[in-house]
Amino acid sequence: MMLLQAPHYAQQSMIDPAGTKAGAINDFWHFLIVTASIVTAIVFITLFIALAKRRRPADPEAPGEQRSLNRWVSGSVAVTLVIIVVFLFMDFRLGRAIATPPQRTPLRVNVIGHQWWWEFQYPDSATPGNWISTANELHIPVGRPVILRMSARDVIHSFWVPNLSGKKDLIPGHDTETWIEADSAGIYRGQCAEFCGLQHAKMALLVIAEPERQFEQWALGARGAALAPADSTAKAGEQVFLTGGCSVCHAIGGTMAGGTVGPNLTHFGSRLTIAAASLPNTKGNLGGWIVDPQRIKPGSFMPPNALEPDQLEALLAYLEGLK
Predict the structure, then answer these.
(1) Among 163, 135, 152, CA closest to 276
(2) b/e per residue, 154-191, with b = 16+ CB within 10 A?
């Protein structure tokens, strides 16, 4: 039976900023809302007064009528121009504030968009030129800017974690770049914000912001190969993975599995979610995803897998042990 509970994370909202960049965007948004509300109120109050005090049709030829009309028009144009200038100034200031990350040593991560999942590549500090690959969960240190170099393998996607940043497109054949920074530890949900096909709505991600020391521990573990199976059931599951169709699409460090079509599963058991943050990573959910992925994400490129009950049980034990 599939469980529907999701891991606890901050509500996906642009009005609950948890980072420097999101805070600047939130301030500008509130400024727009307040200003627009004041302008709307003035317009309706003026209209109400004009309707309430009207006694007779205006005579355009009457003395002073034209001068009064000119004053109203001139005043309205002047106020409109002032508002536009203020908006342009605020927009320019916001653009400068979010264009460049703070002057602290940044973490650099490659982000690759696929239909319909996210790939994250971290530089391997132990082996320059190598990259640590993971999927759908982006680990970052708190209080340190993270520069994201982004591209797409198939169609245009858009990276959006509203609690931390605005949107940025990922374009096939063209690299783009943005940055994020978390002020506090937590799990922040993100979403593809550019329609990219049938399962666009289920192309989500989690950003896991953690203290620097905890992040370094995670990165150290992520550099290592997958743990060897701990018991006979998990060992049997490894053979199911390697001899079946799984290894054609997926890679697991330290094994013969080197597929590049689907997400890297080296430390899959440590992940909070499956299917691009569509479901919590539980045994029941994972079993349903392996056997019939089209029921969960119709149109996804993962095929159904007809396994015997003992094969499925062994495969689940193996995958959940990859930590």
Answers:
(1) 135
(2) ebebbbbbbbbbbebbbbeeeebebbbbbeeebbbbbb
Q: Which amino acid is at 30?
A: H
CA distance 156 to 152: 6
pTM of the model: 0.84
Residues 193-220: tens digit of each pLDDT? 999 999 999 999 999 999 999 999 999 9
CB 15 within 8 A of CB 26: yes
Which amino acid, 132?
I
Report how far residue 112's alpha carbon sits from residue 134's, in angstroms, rounded to the nearest whole number: 11
Q: Which of 149, 200, 146 is nearest to 171 (CA)?
A: 149
**Helices assigned H by DSSP within the chain:** 20-53, 65-99, 212-223, 232-243, 246-249, 283-291, 293-296, 309-320
Domains and CATH numbers, the chain: 1-55+100-224 (2.60.40.420), 232-320 (2.60.40.420)
Measured CA to CA, the distance from residue 244 to residue 308 in angstroms comes to: 12
d(CA 110, CA 99): 18
Q: Is 86 helix (H, G, I), strand (E, B) or coil?
A: helix
> How far is it, in rounded angstroms, from Cα 315 to Cα 27?
49
The yes-or-no verdict on residue 11 having pLDDT over 60 is yes
